[in-house]
Amino acid sequence: MSGSAYWTKEIKGADRRSPKEGATRRLDRLRSELRDLDPVVANRAWREVGDALQRITDRYSR
Prior knowledge:
Helices cover 85% and strands 0% of the residues. The chain is mostly helical. α1 runs antiparallel to α2. The mean pLDDT is 88.
């Protein structure tokens, strides 16, 4: 199974089980994509993801 088909199947299955599990699988996919990048670029991407998740958390925790 190709990488693209693998992740599509995994994410759809996880979404059916729960939104949290779907989000976790998406982060796993991002992690697998970022591991081969330059560390500076990968760190910046993780920082941006962290900031976006924090904004979402703040919005829904009020």
